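ASSEMBLY PREDICTION REQUEST
Request ID: AP-0331
Submitted by: J.K., bench scientist
Number of chains: three
Total residues: 1423
Priority: normal
Notes: Please return the full assembly, not individual chains.
Input sequences:
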Amino acid sequence: MADPNPPVTPLYVGIDLGTTNSAAAVFDGERVSVVRNAQSATVTPSVVRLDKQGRITVGTRARRFLEQDPSNTAAEFKRLMGTGQGIAFPAAGTTKKPEELSAEVLKALRQDIFDQLGVNIERAVISVPALFELPQSAATSEAARLAGFARVELLQEPIASALAAGWRADGDGAGSWLVFDLGGGTFDASLLETRDGLLRVVGHDGDNFLGGRDFDWAITEHLAAQLSVVPRRNEPGHAGALRALRLAAEDAKIELSRNERAQVTLANPLRIDDQDVEVDLELDRATVERLCAPFVDRALDVSLRLLATHGLGAGKLAKVVLVGGPTVMPMVRARVAARLDAALAEGHDPMTLVAQGAALYAATAGLDGRAHATAAPTGRQIWLQYPAVSSDLTPHVVGKFIGANPPTKIRFARADGGWTSGDASVAPDGTFLTSVTLLPRRACTFAIEATGADGKRVETSPPALTIVQGLTIGDPPLSRTLGVALANGMVQTYLERGAPLPARRTFTHYTVETIAKGSEGSVLRIPIVQGELSQANLCRLVGTLDIGGDAVTDTVPVGAAVEVTIELDRGGRLSARALVPLIGQVFEHVAHLLVPDASPEALEIAMRDLRRQLAELRTDAFRRGLASVIEKLDHVEGRLAEAEKDIDAAHGGDADAAQRARRALLDVDGTMADADLSRKWPQLEDSARNTAISASSTVGMHGTDAERSLLQEVLAAMEKARRDKDAPELERQMRLASRLSTAAFNRTSEAWEWYFADASSEIGKARDLPKANALVAEGKAAVERGDTTELRRVVKGLWALLPEDSEARKKGFDSGVRS
Amino acid sequence: MTAERVADNPFFVLGVSPEASRIEVEREAQKLLGMLELGFEAARAYPTPLGDRPRTAEAVRAAVAALRDPYQRLVAELWARHAPPVRGGAATPEAAAGEAPVVTRRALGWCP
Amino acid sequence: MALVYIVLFRLHRKAIDARRLDRTWRFFSWSVIAGLAAGGLITFAVMFVALLVAIGLWWFAIPFAMYLFLPAFEPLLARHLYAPLGLAQLAYWSARADTTKDPEGYALAVAARVCAQRRTGKAEAFVIARRDKRKPLGDAEVVATAFLAAGRGDADTARVLLRSTHALVEVHPRVRELAGEWLAVDAAARGAWRELHEDALATRWPASPLTFFLEGVAARKLGVPHAPRSPEMIARWLLAPNRRATRKLRALVYIAPPLPVVAVPVARDVRGAAMPRAVEAHLALSGTPGALAAAVGAWDQALGDPDVRAWLARRALELDAPLGAVERALRDVATAVTDDLVRAADAARLGAPASRGLVGDALAHRLRHGRLDDLEAAFSRWEGRRTSGQVLPAIDEWREFIALRTAYEDACRAGGTDLRRLAFPHAYRCTNRMAVWLWNARDELPLAHAMHRWLLREALAVGDAEAIDLCTRNARLGVNTRLGRIEPDLTK
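STATUS: Completed
Returned structure:
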């Protein structure tokens, strides 16, 4: 919605705050232009340097120091956003948070806009990766606040790219689009659809830790291997040499986008283990393509998976939009076009497309960037509500005159004189509702003409309004489903992925344990998780709401209602509230809004654990010859090896590699659980069959009618669980079947005869043999008489004399499944 | 919850017919958001088969987002097209919850 | 002289004790006897005090007067003076002066009763401190906790706790009388006349005159045979306190309004499309089995209807919905509808009606297995907390037990004997362990006994021979309480 009093020419600002490079663009309602920095480049490297005097340098000038003074120059801090991890600047003797460094980049871009347009910007749209989690989004908003923005909105990068690409598309270019955004550090694939001038996100997928950086590292390692002394990533002393090599590799990569060959030469020799190593190597395009191809394929796998989820095959796409530096490489373009079998959208600058889209979105959101001049309003003030950008050719304009005795009539006249609305009448309370007609793909300004009761023209403030006709998108959608983890390990979804922001949902839950008043140990935890899976352990914890025994005014018994409300604002900031009606208390403090820390030591322990599990699973799978399981485990092996490298790098101080390793391990954990299930499954199926057979015969013979019909139900449920490969459900149903058959069996006299035979066969183990013998004799007599009551007494007496496990034997119907 | 399933149907929230085109849905939502922002009395409630319900900006946003997605719109149509006709007026009270109490705890000395 | 006083005192006490368990005309006789005895006591006290004053010992007369008047006046003071003014401590000490067995228990309940009417932080803290000093937990402590909850406006908790005392073997008649009165007043305030009448028929609670009157009102309202007639109602009304407040009730009784006819929704045979019928049945969903069955049947028909499917397929094509949208829509609607139906069935504690189809099957599955799962998880958690060393105060253990018991009974009622048989073994294992632990390690004998008794009843219901055996033995153990050792009578 538009601001009530826009200046006549609004200025919309979009900022792409990237991992390696950042850019800003402005949109004036007609044209989008990219802002150039002091070096007149369209992109500014996301690099910040802090020198001894504490002076801050940002961008290209700072990037030069990456090689000379790496410890005081930070790059790629965007990946650490929301982790709470500080970045040290030893020369200045301070530590800065990632959001503070991002704020410096934003400040620099803000200055560039001022230098170029002479406008001080207070509001803007900042793009974030599609799969950013809440803590990361919150950190981005915080960075903007630190940079002096009064208000920002966050927009997912793929939507920005598509908006920018779609804005120029001719006609209504209906169809599905894929935005293939391979950035410095992240990869996002987004499927979008345009129709009737509306852009809609159909779905997205991605890898938060796949990007151009991986290309650079692959090339760097290739180069390093050719040196006389090979620098290693897990050696903190080699970090400098590697960094220098990496910058050279990056330059060579860019050069190879144009040429077939490139020379990698460093002016100064590298110091590795106190030796001077000269670097003078040659790199050709084929080698680089070979090194980078696996990463591109990984990205393409993600893209195809996304298409498949939405029922689209390759070749069904209208266009593919390439975004991000690495997509400039001819190899990437060719590979993408070939595997997705679709036309690439041409004529876009992949480096600034996101910023342009963000600027266009600022218009849609009515987020005028200008700081407001507080000129005294002349004329009658109106509050207006209208879309600043509209795909609709005849949008509504809603308004309200402030103060008593409003004019009676109002009309809107388009500036080109081609159209004038009829007189709309103004209600006595000052409100009116009318619609205007736009020209396609143009910014239209309408003069407001109000007429008083006396028939005289009334001046209004504002005197006119501007609406742009073009592609629009709705409210910013939530990137990942948000919910609350429940005691049974499932997730109650609060806000689905794609839900428009701001949003709020309330659900009532019930406590599963008592919170005793005054007891510090008893805490009711409400974990807030983000992720697309219904099992809580596979989602990410983004915050917790604790209700502690020390905070409640009275004991909250088990089963008490708790009303939990989760709220997200437009920027993706989370707040949550739990109301316990029983005691009338509200708890609002959300703790733990951070991406979990990943220390190399903790990672190593997790790694060792996974390795051990993997070995066990593998041995077992080999023994049984389960080919599918072995295949899965091979894949796991590969991921673990990769993660190991990252953990090595983490030891060398690479916090980003640590985060990547953490995610990889989480992923592996999920795959292993899956493999474990496939391994256990045949065994489980087998025992399910046995249980079914034995239960059917026992219940068939001794069960009541009700039990028989119940067993039929259980057997049907077992069959269904077997078909669905639902192991927990199957185990539960088996337990039910065993219980039924035990119950049926125990009711018969045969049961006790059977128990008696069983117990008397083990009489040799009895503690008191004479007594046991006497009991056996009594029992035999009871069997003859058919006296079940007496027999039961005898069996119990015998059990008392026998060691423990004999008694456990009677539960033999519980088959061999462990819980 | 049962009543909400029908009363919160996006078509009722926006007050558009299930036949409405995408553009009509967008236009109506944008108008309603504006009216709600400026406090128009007419936008504050919407009629449903269960009587009037309060309308919020959040509900309008959610409704228009739901109708943009063809699948969600299909499900919304399934409900809206087969629901009883909408009617204004106050919502029907929940099934008469017994007669009004003739005596209170307080009167009998058992209530704070 | 003293002998006369003691005889009168005993007579007064006996008459009241006898009256509590009576719901017949003898209630009045006992009341008259109690009244006469009280009159005698007062006369005696007046004479004695007058004598003391006459011989100049007026300073001696004051404590004596208090001591002599108290037995007759204490309940009156509690009701008309301490409670309205919130004098919990005074109420406690004047009840404490009473000479029945375990006067502290009664005093605790009276002090809490004051909090139920006029709650102050200080009074509440006083009651809680007194309550926590007493071990093991018995009916007085549970009733006191309930009254505190009532004072905070939490009538639901209070009701559940008060009703739970029925399972405890330790019986303070005067405490139970207070509990019964609160429940009667609560039922009257909610208009739950059926509940009140059933309590009266089962003589669950000792009756105070107010309870007796309200029970009469309930019987009249329900129009049951043998309901008290008007003269008797007037007598009951006269006998009960708060006559001004209950006058309206009495007037209503004269008119004796006919019972409201409960309309049972009948599945109407609506012609036409299946889908509108399903939506309509869904909107008409209420807490009756008929409405639930109608809704389930209507949905199963609608979601299996080829016309509905054809309509969906056509619209999906027109809207350009993704492939598989029709199946997904049918499945999603079935899930959403089932969610609603499960919630409605849970709220009204209903079982799944028999209907084959997407919704009927899912509902049956969710109700049976969902409830079993929840029960198992809840019982395990209760028991697991003990092993993890999280020991709660006895009152909270009791509250947890009664919450679990209610959940268990609700689930069994909805699911029938089959489900009961399936649910029992796990509940038995957990509860038995908890009860044994409460008995052995925590000396909470009345609580443990109540749990054993409950388990025994359930074991008998499902015919689990082993459990019957063990529970009988456990439930037969004598329970030491503050009222002496109680040898349980399992035939009751």
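REVIEWER COMMENTS: The longest strand of chain B covers residues 45-48.
SIGN-OFF: pending second reviewer
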